[in-house]
Amino acid sequence: MLHIVDFELDHPERTEFLEEISEDLSLSRNQRRMFSRFFGFEAFHYDEQAPLAQMTSGAVDRLLARNPRSAAALSHVSHCHTLPAITHCDGESSSILAPFAEQGLEVFSATMNHCATGLSMLSAMDQLLGDADTGLVLIAEKAFHPDVRLIKNTTIMGECAAAVLVRREASRLRVVDSHTQHETRFWQNTGHLDEPYLEGFEDMYLDFACNTLTNALKRFGLGMEDVRFILPHNVNMASWIMIAQILGFDRHKVCLSTIARFGHCFGADPFINLMQLIKDDQLVAGDRLLLFSIGLGATATCTLVQVN
After folding, report:
1. Closest residue by Cα to residue 114 from 86, 140, 80, 87
2. What phi and psi, each to the nearest 5 degrees, are found at residue 227?
3. Which residues pair with 167 in a beta bridge?
4. Residues 82-124 pLDDT 10s
5. What is the pTM of this model?
6. H-assigned helices in the chain
7. What residue ranges define each of the domains in the chain, with the CATH number in brackets?
């Protein structure tokens, strides 16, 4: 069974506030109020001058330095990102993965589940790793353009990289199981601004999220009362409050405290929220956690983690 050995985050030091980016994102006064009052956004780590490699190397270097035994056993490295292409294609490996490929490690990118790819990759690593192997899951990309930063009337992107070490040796965080499901109506996204690929997505989003959570719990043989915390993607606060109301569970199970400071950082959000729980010393042995994310396309992944 797979365990999360350790993980690390890295983000730009520079912070932008909602009011400061409203003009760049062409937000109206009412949209600014919506994103602030109802969706819970205040600030975002963002620096257009900081390269992607600065974030990934910052997280990876600290992570491997404090886990030398796992670093020595590193065998597989996956870079998970939402956008299909995030670096120049100038070789067999991207600039993010090239240093690992040069060491003879198995490297690959994954993107098809979009913001849910990082969580989905935990299941893939469970299938790929041998008993003595260690896997590194990198979740990172830049919000490099206003059309990337903003999903209209839904969310605003920040920047944060997550680096996650996994192996079969027992550790504090055990990956028990994972559930993924798709809503294929929204698969086609060429990037053209006039393409109505999100038409209808807002209307089905809550049902899709609730259905995924319900099916995941059924697969895991659990009820919501058995779950201590839900660590969500930070799309917005209002949607998670509504999900809790629809499914009839205490909304305080959902870790929402990082939305105001980070925004939605693509696939890194569940690990941002997990880090916050650890920093706040909120986890005890036996706790069951649901890490949850939805990616455009649409894919939803819910991963059950138990604290040892």
Report:
1. 80
2. -100, 130
3. 3, 134
4. 887 776 666 666 889 999 999 999 999 999 898 999 999 999 9
5. 0.94
6. 18-21, 29-33, 52-65, 68-72, 98-101, 117-128, 146-149, 201-220, 237-247, 259-262, 269-279
7. 3-167 (3.40.47.10), 173-307 (3.40.47.10)
